[in-house]
Amino acid sequence: MEVITVVGSGLIGRSWAMVFASGGYTVKIYDNQPGQSAKAITEIRKQLEELEEAHMLRGQLKASQQLNLISSHDDLAQALEGAFFVQECVFEQLEVKQSIFQDLERLVGNNVILSSSTSCLVPSSVFSKVHNKSRCLVSHPVNPPYYVKLVELVPHPETVMAVMDAAYALMTKVGQVPVRLKREIDGFAVNRVQAAIISESWRLVKDDVISVKDIDLVMSEGLGMRYAFIGPMETIHLNAPEGMEDYMKRYGEGITRLLNSFGPTPDFSGEEAKSVISEMLELIPNSQQHLSARKERRDLLLMSLAKLKKDH
């Protein structure tokens, strides 16, 4: 059986383990905190059984069969034995990731692909202390990866095309939807687009144009309805009688005018942020009880949407 090692047993690490096991791969989970990877498997068992009961389990194998493919390890060298692909999932601290990849490079052969789940650190920083950077890349999932299948594949400047191809093939095989970035850029693609949406949404609330509740409805009941199935480029291509070129002839000048009217980047932590945050807390208090309930609702809705997309 082909082996994939997941380094880090938090939410993203557990999700990756479940995704890889759903594709029939043997998965070894490593955590440097003794006993943590074993606890992760207990949580994974619970999730797999719930998914099976809800008929939302990914892959062709039963929950028990997938669970049998996953093992926990407190010893890194043991966890890496036989692996052809390593997915690092530790917290977003550059020095920690750099140190882990130094350890990984010492323990695996040159043909093993080293992948990071970082969401905001560029590959040239994450892998700066690795000697053989040609087999390194970022595989950035969208949270939660089990329900939201997109994964951004971001190369280091020295990453060879064969490694990008192999990662793309692996992600496709396990049911993810990979996209390739041609080069590294701060924030990758997902976070750059998300930041633009957050920035203008925040400005509109702060400038008393619209409420927090209503700006969220603009996305969830408006733009998001389309974007769940087609992206912004296809949206504009379909929104004019003769396609994208026609759309830009009709609306390009107006889009430019709007973009030029956008204000400066908001201050997300200063005094002006207090009213926006206060409005959000009136809708959903930041207690664990309320946040957990909304996250559970989010995941159930994403699960249902994933099923709908799969069936169509």
Description:
With 312 residues, the protein is α/β, with parallel strands linked by helices. The chain folds into 2 domains: 3-180, NAD(P)-binding Rossmann-like Domain (Rossmann fold, 3-Layer(aba) Sandwich), CATH 3.40.50; 190-311, N-(1-d-carboxylethyl)-l-norvaline Dehydrogenase, domain 2, CATH 1.10.1040.10. Helix content is 53%, strand content 13%. α10 (232-238) crosses α11 (244-261). The protein is globular, with a radius of gyration of 21 Å. The model has no long low-confidence stretch (mean pLDDT 95).
Average pLDDT over all residues: 95
Oligomer: single chain
Proportion in helices: 40-55%
What's the level 1 CATH class of the largest domain?
Answer: Alpha Beta
Q: Write down the Rg.
A: 21 Å
Note poorly predicted spans.
none
Give the CATH topology of the largest domain: Rossmann fold
Tally the structural domains: 2
GO molecular function: L-gulonate 3-dehydrogenase activity; NAD+ binding
Family: Belongs to the 3-hydroxyacyl-CoA dehydrogenase family.
InterPro entries: 3-OHacyl-CoA_DH_NAD-bd, 3HC_DH_C, 6-PGluconate_DH-like_C_sf, 6PGD_dom2, NAD(P)-bd_dom_sf
Domain 3-hydroxyacyl-CoA dehydrogenase C-terminal: 187-268
